[in-house]
Design goal:
The complex is a heteropentamer of chains A (about 675), B (about 160), C (about 100), D (about 500) and E (about 525). Helix content of chain B is about 75%, strand content about 0%. In chain B, helix 1 runs antiparallel to helix 2. Chain B contains 6 helices and no strands. Chain C starts with a helix and ends with a helix. Chain C has one domain: Helix Hairpins (Orthogonal Bundle), CATH 1.10.287.3510. Chain D is an all-alpha fold and about 500 residues long. Chain D has a domain of about 210 residues. Helices cover about 75% and strands about 0% of the residues of chain D. In chain D, strand 1 and strand 2 form a beta hairpin. In chain D, helix 11 runs antiparallel to helix 14 and helix 13 runs antiparallel to helix 14. About 0% of the residues of chain D have low confidence. Chain E has about 525 residues and is mainly alpha-helical. In chain E, the strands form 2 sheets. Chain E has a two-stranded antiparallel ribbon. Chain E is globular, with a radius of gyration of 22 Å. The mean pLDDT of chain E is about 90. Chain E has a domain of about 240 residues. The chains are: A mainly alpha (about 675), B mainly alpha (about 160), C mainly alpha (about 100), D mainly alpha (about 500), E mainly alpha (about 525). At the B-C interface, helix 1, helix 2, helix 3, helix 4 and helix 5 of B face helix 1, helix 2 and helix 3 of C.
């Protein structure tokens, strides 16, 4: 089994980064160059292995190409967990994405992170991340997917918090992890629901048993599906858990490119694609709306952001919303397609922004300017000539994300919009979905070009630094060039199709949609049919909205015909909301975190200051009180005080004799007599 | 006639007993106790217990009571016989004891005592003597050990050594 | 007249008076007097039961022993009292240190 | 058996009386500083007495002196307990500095006389004998409690003891007179027979009598509400006597109660098995309530004591309560449990008191202040005191636990009516932990390592080790004890 | 091999005696000898483990000697899949604990003598199969613990010690009553195995206070064990005792003593009254839920690092309780869901072990920083990560293990508890998943406050974790990781025994009254 390269190579791809992590974290400090070559070497190897797998897949050209292997992890007789890997076309494409972007990131980081105090740990964590991401990709069952899922969260935590001296970074990393955990809880509940019904964790048995319709169906299945989808909501930063991703930009920029743009956040989409067969139609509707809302919401926020990475972050959220929308409307291969293209161009956009920030940083450093924010676009402008490679590469990717023909984004976005449109055509009550989709597409074109114009065009806003801006070193530009070129459509339509308007190509041939396992759902053919009908309309519309967006940006930020300031003042309310990200953080803080912390403090107070102090210690106090009372009753406390001094036995004999009895004793006798009386009356008469 | 004497003696006994516990002057109480003890001895006579009556007067009146008065005198630097001492909780105590008495007496009167008719013996000394040397030999002997101990104890405590 | 009940009446009267004395008196010797009343009450019982149970002399023996025991008890009590008296006189005069302790 | 025939079985007591006389006479020829010798005489005498008791323990149960007392294994067991505790007290008395100012001749003689009384308490089957033996013990106790003539507290103890002792025995006497009147006899078995066939109209008087008699019993075992003398007397009396009062009269008192309730107030089948038989009198309930109140009060009041001696006094009240828990059941198991408890109680309680003596000899005080850091200064004493406290609390693996185990076992086994007693007993153990471990806390938890370790004189060291060994060993292996108790569980009863 | 279990118990007792006899000025000798004794103990435990037959779910290495025949008390020892891992954990933690206590300065001799006595007591509880023996060992633990907390603890040590003692004694007294109840109903024997056989029949229809005796006894025993676990609302001794105890003792308290509670519930309550499990399981699961949420929330609000870890123990033991409640899934009325029962029970037993290693690690690590800073105020640190990278790394590892990260053993067992309990107690499990979030929240928040941010100037000279301390933590970390990655060996060890318990409980459903 293991000799089979289709099993062995994925396993190597999985574990090589882990090995690199272990070597670099423990011995990195002692190795030359802090062991970065170990990390880069291993990751490039995995990339090559992934290329081999891809080639195999490509040569096979079989949509049902699939390999798998598993071993028994836990076996208690009835309760069994087998962990294993599943290698099919989807996996291989995803592996390629991950290893490619990861390799690029490693190489990019060689220069970007040079001289960092925790250089080796950075590379180690990248290795850990790649391992866990590959784990998600290769998982053939829910448990190992969940495990990798959480591990991805941890590597994200570690990398976002790489510069933990900054409070903002520490906070962001914690926020990312906890927000993800919220989603993971849903994921886990979904797993438990599925397992308790189906009795299996592996994907295939689950699909089969759902298809059987006996074990689980209806509302339960919907809830299970939505629970699992919660995981995607957290990881893919969907509304309402989208708040962590923009903050995650506190991490180093290559990390943002790798994890928070291309791969990790796409894991949610990947999972939805992988598990698409379990979603019931009602679950899908919820998913679609979540995606649509996320897409439009993030786009609206992105238009007003000034931090270059924040714009890209919200753009990522918005694009992820598109993908989720696609899943929800049933065209999940389109979602995956968009994942693929988006990974390329968005990673590239981040590298480019990293390149810009890197040089800004150096320039500011040279100018001894420590106050200017190197990420604020308002401080940039006119970098076009200083950084040509970065500029052109970024432009290409921007065109791709804006959905301009000839570029990859056009193909995938078009597929999604077509799917959404056809869905709305068949379910007119859900007309908002395509509306949000197209509006978000327009906004995307707008804010991306706003970014381009503000950064590279026009006049420098701060002249003093522009002279120090120059192109980044080769380690950084080479990934930029590579990924920039991958934004062209041609790489996705090979080998048959050279028409930039049609998405048909190896991807659509090899990644074919499967029927939902839920009985009664639309078949994949029907969905494809419907989408096909909507294709041209969607294409037209998307071209129109993209042009409008670009034009608007051009007019506002290049030609300055329309004053952005005027508009923002005119729509002050909306502008405020957009600028402040719809006050999500503030409201969460006020209505969620703070009450929760207060609850924790109240509970702790209850536990320690109240329950323990008054209730538990109350028993002790009560005992002591009783003790005092009975002590007083049994023997006067005042007498006790004098006992040791024999003051009670004072100086005349008569007094001693008189006081020899304290009244208590006679009280006692009185009680005794009274007690006997009562007993007599009760018992005898 | 005998009844009248009986009641007089009884009244004397009880009333002087009441005096013992109610009077505030210790010496008066002691004297009242004397009358109670005498009265008790009288009752013993009515109960055909001539020997016990004699012992009562000899030991109780002659011994114990003297000891008691001696104790009173000794422990109070007597300047007059009016050695006052206070009582406490007489009210509540009185009520409780009163009811206690009522129920005690009720219980006693209702109880089926073992009653056998008997004729008045000539004297009880002989009978008591025989019993002491047969059935009750052991208590009788033990009493002697006890008296020995009491003697030693009293001597130890009151001797003025050290 | 002159029945068992009348003796029981007197004995319980004495008993209760003795009890009353023990309960209310503050002076040790007065309490002792109350105790003597109780002993007498018991003795009356013994002797009375003796008579009304066919002159069963067991009761007489009991009463006799009680009287002797009471005497022994009183002797010991008095010895203790005298001891206290002796003790106090000496302590009062010279052993101030113990008071200060 | 006639008086003459009885003498053969009365040898232990006779030897004892001879020993007492020997003590008395020897004392006349001794100087004050040499009076420890009397202890030797009494001790040797007691050993011989013990041997002869042991010798007689296997004779078939029979009555002596025309139904005055019995000789049966049960009384032999109790007598041996009494002898062991007396011997320990004699040894401790040599080392007790409180007594060094006084002649000890009379002291030992009085203890000897007291032992006679205790012996008779365990074996009397006649209410006259019962009363006389109680009085013997009481009067000797009065004197011994007030033995420290120069100490006002001791005087006070003696005085209080006399007054309340006389009062309690007076009340008991009145109760006995009622029993005599109702049954016409002073003999247990005759009384038992009479009561079993008595008219129910006697019940008020019987209950009255029972309660009054219990005043005397309760006084001896210091049960609430007849315990009031205990704290003051225990505190004022010489510590050796306090220790003695807390074990020997208590043991004899329990023996007396068991015998009395068994053979007077219950059916003859009572001891034949676990079945209980008693007349329709509510005495099990009354004793049960008294037991709970006794231990609760003892424990509660012990908590706030500042003097360890006084704390131990209340603790001994509490222990009386634990033992009383088994009384209402009064099955074979119950008697067995009380017997075992008494045996282990001797060692743990005497051990604790001996340590009080050691500390008092050393520091002159008996409050908690004197125990501050004791565990660091005198590690052996501290460790053994901890052991005694553990045992008194009733924690395994100490003997005290075994005692409690037997008591609880009896109650659980006796069924539903007695379960609440177990719960009460259990909660009381927890309460008692608090004050027992207050001692431990003071000894170890406060205070610092001291460079100079001191050890008690070898005599006292030997004594506490001697008491500590059974306190621990009996907690781990008490099978011989259990067997001995089982063998001793034979009462003389009329049917035999 | 015959008497290997006795060997396990008596080695530390003899060791305690040996240590007590050593000269009191040679402190190092005391330390080395204690290390040697616990080391030997650990080796014996490993030998036992190697000789243990995991396929056989019954008692092994049984020893049986007459002890007190008059009460039918015997000296019975035995080990099965439930107790063996606990024995191993005990031996290991006590061995490690010696090194954690290396810096104890006060009365070293006394400390180690009591320490070894505690060791014997704990092992005795795990190994004894006679109630009397069990109870003796149960109580024998108390005294050393009292002294170890009371003499070597923090500022409030005396209060903490007596509180611990009183709390536990209260529980054990109730337990004693329960045991005596069983003694009488099951034919006057203390033999646990015999009682197991007889109890279901013997207790049938017996009434105590008008209630079913089985239920009353169950509750009495349960309270005794619950205080040790500790189950809410009997938990308040724990934060105090943990905070005041010296580091090694906190390690043992959390690592082993808490396990005794759950062990007792499984061994005694489940083993003897399997039919009553159905009656109580929902309550148990609910108490588990309360433990999880309450402990988590309290931990979130703590400012004392050690107290936080202490409350996290309450939280973690909650998972175990939920897990053991899951066993009722095997009952007929719950669909004879064996896989859920297996997952839950094995998960709970696994969780016991895992919490043992993880909390031990956490307490050792808290002790490390306390030793250097002399306080544990979470807000009083800051930025330690830049000063002590290795310490930070290991603490991060421990915290992540504590918050149930996959790859660490805690995850496996918590997940198993949840998965097992889910089919029967859906609402409770769903609510208690909030605990996962709480775990992450309090650990990460504390981590951030202690290690992240700018370095607190006061601690710029703080020393890195040293070799001895590393030596105590690393093995635990390795175990945690190993079982996180490959739980198979552990689960194989307990499987047969767990199956027996489940089978028994499943069978009880057929005759048990709900």
């Amino acid at each position: 089994m293991i000799e089979n390269p289709m099993i062995l190579f994925p396993l190597l791809i999985l574990f090589l980064p882990l090995l690199s992590f272990i070597i670099v974290i423990f011995f990195g400090n002692k190795l030359p160059r802090q062991g970065d070559w170990v990390a880069v070497g291993s990751i490039v190897t995995t990339f090559l292995l992934a290329c081999y797998l891809f080639l195999q897949m490509f040569l096979n050209y079989d949509p049902d190409f699939s390999h798998g292997a598993s071993f028994s992890w836990i076996n208690l007789g009835e309760f069994k967990i087998n962990l294993g890997i599943l290698v099919d076309n989807l996996t291989i494409v995803m592996l390629l994405i991950v290893t490619l972007v990861s390799s690029c990131t490693h190489i990019f980081s060689l220069a970007y992170m040079k001289g960092d105090i925790r250089y080796n740990r950075y590379f180690a964590y990248l290795g850990l991340f790649t391992f866990s991401m590959n784990g998600i990709v290769l998982a053939d069952n829910l448990i190992s997917m969940y495990m990798s899922w959480e591990l991805v969260g941890v590597s994200s935590y570690l990398l976002i918090g790489h510069w933990f001296e900054k409070d903002s970074a520490a906070n962001a990393s914690k926020k990312a992890f906890l927000t993800n955990r919220v989603g993971d809880i849903g994921f886990f509940i979904g797993i438990m629901l599925l397992y308790s019904a189906v009795g299996a964790f592996a994907f295939n048995p689950i699909f089969e048993s759902i298809a059987g319709g006996q074990a689980i169906a209806g509302t339960t299945l919907t809830i299970a599906g939505l629970g699992i989808f919660m995981g995607a909501v957290g990881k893919s930063s969907q509304f309402p858990l989208h708040i962590w991703l923009p903050d995650a930009m506190e991490g180093p920029t290559p990390v943002s490119a790798l994890m928070h743009a291309a791969t990790m956040v796409a894991a949610g989409v990947y999972m939805c694609v992988r598990l698409f067969p379990i979603f019931t139609p009602s679950a899908l509707i919820v998913i679609a709306y979540i995606g649509a809302i996320t897409a439009i919401l993030a786009a609206l926020i992105a238009v007003s952001q000034n931090d270059i990475k924040k714009v890209l972050a919200y753009s990522t959220v918005s694009q992820l919303g598109f993908m989720i929308l696609a899943v929800g409307t049933g065209v999940y291969t389109a979602a995956f397609f968009h994942l693929l293209t988006h990974a390329m161009f968005k990673a590239n956009l981040f590298y480019c922004s990293g390149s810009v920030i890197h040089s800004m940083h150096h320039a500011l450093h040279k100018a001894h300017d420590h106050d200017t924010d190197p990420q604020d676009m308002r401080n940039m402008g006119g970098f076009k000539d200083k950084m040509p490679i970065t500029y052109f590469s970024m432009l290409v990717s921007t065109l791709a994300i804006a959905g301009v023909p000839l570029f990859s984004g056009f193909l995938s976005k078009d597929a999604i919009l077509a799917g959404t449109l056809s869905f709305a055509q068949h379910h007119p009550e859900h007309f908002l979905l395509p509306f949000f989709g197209f509006l978000a597409a327009a906004l995307t074109a707008f804010y991306m070009f706003r970014l381009i114009f503000m950064t590279f065009h026009g006049n420098p806003n701060i002249k003093s630094i522009v002279k120090n801006i120059h192109e980044s070193p080769k380690e950084m530009t080479s990934p930029i060039v590579l990924l920039g070129s991958l934004s062209f459509f041609i790489f996705y339509t090979l080998p048959h199709n050279f028409n930039p308007m049609k998405d048909k190509g190896w991807f659509t041939d090899l990644i074919v949609p499967r029927n939902s396992a839920v009985p009664g759902s639309l078949t994949s053919n029907e969905i494809a049919e419907y989408a096909h009908h909507a294709h041209y309309l969607a294409m037209g519309l998307s071209l129109i909205v993209a042009s409008i967006g670009i034009l608007l940006a051009y007019l506002m930020y290049q030609k300055k015909v329309i004053s952005a300031k005027n508009i923002s003042e005119k729509f002050g309310f909306f502008y405020d909301w957009s600028l402040n990200k719809f006050y999500f953080d503030e409201n969460y803080n006020r209505y969620l975190y703070q009450p929760f912390l207060r609850l924790a403090h109240t509970i702790s107070w209850l536990d320690w200051e109240f329950y323990d102090k008054y209730f538990i210690n109350g028993f002790g106090k009560l005992t002591k009180l009783l003790s005092t009372v009975s002590g007083k009753f049994d023997y006067s406390g005042i007498d006790q005080g004098f006992v040791d001094g024999f003051g009670r036995a004072s100086n005349t004999v008569g007094k001693l004799l008189r006081n020899v009895q304290t009244g208590r004793l006679q009280n006692y006798l009185l009680f005794v007599v009274a007690g006997i009386l009562v007993i007599i009356i009760a018992q005898a008469f | 006639m005998a009844d009248i004497v009986f009641w007089i003696i009884s009244a004397l006994t009880v009333m002087s007993a009441a005096f013992v516990v109610l009077n505030n002057q210790l010496v008066y109480s002691a004297v009242a106790l004397l009358f109670t003890l005498f009265g008790t001895a009288g009752l013993y006579v009515f109960l055909w217990a001539d020997f016990i009556a004699g012992i009562q007067i000899l030991v109780y009146v002659g011994g114990i009571l003297v000891l008691v008065i001696f104790g009173i005198m000794l422990t109070n630097k007597i300047k007059s016989v009016r050695i006052s001492h206070k009582s406490m909780q007489q009210g509540v105590g009185g009520v409780v004891i009163f009811w206690f008495f009522i129920f005690l007496f009720l219980a006693l009167t209702k109880a089926p005592w073992v009653v056998t008719e008997a004729i008045e013996p000539v004297g009880t000394v002989r009978g008591i003597g025989i019993l002491l040397l047969t059935d009750y030999l052991l208590p009788f002997e033990i009493i002697s050990v006890l008296l020995l101990g009491a003697l030693i104890g009293a001597a130890v405590l009151s001797r003025g050594d050290s | 007249m002159n029945s068992l009940d009348s003796y029981l009446f007197i004995s319980s009267m004495l008993f209760c008076l003795g009890l009353f004395g023990v309960i209310t008196r503050r002076n040790a010797i007065a309490v002792l007097m109350g105790v003597e009343l109780i002993l007498n009450a018991a003795n009356i019982n013994f002797v009375a039961f003796s008579k009304f149970n066919g002159m069963n002399l067991d009761g007489h023996i009991f009463a006799l022993l009680v009287i002797v025991l009471a005497a022994a008890e009183a002797a010991v009590a008095l010895a203790i009292i005298i001891n206290i008296y002796n003790n106090m006189n000496t302590v009062n005069i010279d052993d101030v240190s113990e008071l200060k302790r | 058996m006639t008086n003459l025939q009885s003498l053969e079985f009365f040898i232990p007591e006779i030897i004892l009386v001879i020993t007492i006389l020997a003590c008395l006479i020897t004392d006349l020829f001794l100087k004050k500083s040499k009076t420890d010798l009397i202890g030797w005489i009494l001790g040797i005498g007691l050993v011989i007495v013990g041997l002869s008791v042991y010798n007689l323990s296997s004779v078939p149960p029979t009555t002596l002196f025309l139904d005055m007392i019995v000789i049966d294994p049960f009384s032999s067991y109790m007598k041996i307990i009494i002898i062991i505790s007396t011997l320990l007290i004699i040894v401790a008395s040599w080392a007790n500095n409180e007594l060094s100012k006084y002649r000890k001749g009379e002291y030992f003689t009085l203890i000897g006389i007291m032992v006679v009384g205790l012996f008779l308490m365990t074996s009397s089957i006649d209410i006259i004998m019962l009363y006389v033996s109680i009085e013997v013990v009481s009067i000797m106790s009065f004197v011994l409690a007030g033995y420290l003539k120069l100490n006002t507290r001791s005087n006070e103890a003696g005085l209080k003891y006399v007054i309340y002792g006389a009062f309690s025995s007076g009340v008991m006497l009145f109760g006995l007179s009622l029993v005599f009147g109702l049954t016409g006899s002073t003999n247990y078995f005759v009384i038992q027979e009479a009561i079993s066939s008595i008219d129910s109209s006697a019940n008020p008087a019987l209950i009255m009598a029972l309660l009054m008699i219990f005043a005397g019993f309760g006084y001896k075992i210091s049960s609430v509400p007849f315990h009031f003398w205990t704290p003051d007397v225990y505190e004022g009396a010489p510590t050796t006597i306090t220790a003695y009062l807390s074990v020997a009269p208590k043991a004899a008192g329990f023996a007396m109660i068991i015998r009395f309730f068994h053979q007077v107030f219950s059916d003859s089948i009572a001891l034949s098995g676990n079945a209980m038989g008693y007349t329709d009198l509510p005495w099990p309930e009354i004793i049960g309530i008294l037991a709970v109140v006794t231990m609760t009060l003892g424990n509660l009041v012990a908590i706030q004591q500042e003097s360890i001696k006084r704390m131990l006094a209340y603790s001994s009240i509490a222990h009386a309560g634990y033992m009383m828990l088994a009384l209402p059941v009064l099955s074979i198991d119950a008697v067995e449990s009380i017997m075992i408890y008494l045996f282990v109680y001797i060692f743990m309680n005497l051990g604790a008191f001996f340590i009080v003596i050691i500390v008092k000899n050393k520091t002159g005080g008996e409050t908690f202040d004197e125990y501050d850091g004791l565990g660091w200064k005198m590690p052996i004493v501290g460790a053994l005191m901890t052991l005694f406290m553990l045992s008194l609390t009733g924690l395994p693996p100490t003997a005290g636990f075994v005692g409690k185990l037997y008591i609880f076992k009896t109650l659980v086994g006796a069924g539903n009516d007695f379960l609440w007693l177990v719960v009460a007993g259990g909660i009381n153990s927890v309460i008692s932990l608090y004050y027992y471990f207050h001692v431990v806390k003071v000894m170890f938890l406060s205070g610092k390592r001291s460079d100079k370790l001191s050890y008690p004189p070898s005599l006292m060291l030997g004594l506490i080790i001697f008491t500590a060994v059974p306190s621990l060993v009996l907690g781990l292996y008490w099978n011989p004890l259990a067997n001995w108790v089982k063998e001793s569980l034979v009462f003389y009863s009329q049917g035999m | 091999m015959e008497n290997i279990l006795s060997l396990l118990i008596w080695i530390p007792i003899l060791g305690a005696i040996i240590v007590a006899c050593l000269p009191r000025d040679n402190e190092n000798l005391v330390r080395y000898i204690s290390a040697a004794i616990t080391g030997l103990e650990f080796i014996v435990a490993i030998v036992l483990w190697r000789a243990f037959d995991p396929v056989n779910g019954s008692m092994q290495f049984m020893e049986r000697y007459e002890w007190i025949p008059s009460l039918n008390i015997s000296y019975i020892l035995g080990v099965d899949g439930l107790s063996l891992p606990m024995v191993l954990l005990t031996a290991m933690l006590f061995f490690i604990g010696v090194f954690v206590s290396w810096n104890i300065k006060k009365a070293v001799k006394g400390y180690f003598a009591l320490y070894l006595l505690l060791n014997a007591g704990v092992l005795g509880v795990f190994l004894s199969l006679d109630f009397f023996l069990f109870y003796i060992f149960w109580e024998v633990m108390l005294l050393p613990m009292y002294f170890l907390i009371g003499m070597w603890g923090g500022p409030q040590r005396e209060y903490a010690a007596i509180k611990f003692f009183l709390y536990t004694l209260f529980g054990s007294v109730l337990m004693l009553i329960g045991i005596l109840g069983l003694y009488f109903t099951c034919g006057k024997t203390f033999d646990i195995l015999l009682i197991m056989e007889r109890a279901p029949e013997a207790l049938n229809g017996v009434l105590w206070w008008g209630m079913s005796a089985a239920k009353v006894i169950w509750v009495l025993l349960f309270i005794g064990f619950a205080i040790k676990v500790p189950v809410f609302p009997f938990h308040t001794w724990l934060p105090l005792a943990h905070v005041e105890a010296p580091t090694a003792i906190s390690v043992l308290l959390a690592g082993i003593l808490l396990k005794l509670g759950v062990y007792g519930i499984i061994r005694v309550n489940y083993g003897i009254m399997p039919d009553q499990v159905y009656w109580f399981a929902a309550g148990l699961a609910f108490l588990g839920l309360v433990n999880v949420i309450w402990g988590g929330l309290c931990a979130l609000a703590q400012t004392d690092l050690k107290k936080l870890v202490a409350y996290s123990s309450i939280n973690h033991m909650g998972y175990s309780l939920i897990g053991i409640a899951a066993v009722v899934a095997a009952g007929e009325m719950n669909g004879s869901d064996l896989k859920a029962a297996q997952a839950g029970l094995s998960g709970a037993v696994f969780q016991m072990f895992n919490h043992g290693t993880i909390s031990a690690m956490l307490f050792i690590l808290v002790g490390v920083v306390y030793e250097r800073a002399h306080h544990r105020d979470i807000d009083g640190f800051g930025g330690l990560a830049s000063q002590m990278p290795i310490y930070t790394g290991i603490t991060a590892l421990a915290f992540f293990a504590g918050l149930g990260l996959p790859g660490f053993s805690g995850f496996v067992s918590e997940a198993m508890c949840f998965i097992g309990a889910f089919p029967v107690f859906k609402a409770i499990v769903v609510l208690s998943t909030i605990g996962i979030l709480l775990n992450a929240a309090y650990f990460l928040w504390a981590f951030q406050r202690v290690f992240f941010g700018e370095l607190n100037e006061k601690y710029k000279d703080m020393k890195e974790i040293n070799g001895l301390e590393l030596f105590t933590v690393i093995p635990l970390a390795i175990i945690t990781l190993f079982f996180g990655i490959y739980p198979g060996p552990y689960l194989d060890l307990i499987k047969a025994t767990m199956d027996q318990i489940i089978e028994k409980i499943a069978f009880a459903a057929s005759y048990g009254v709900m």
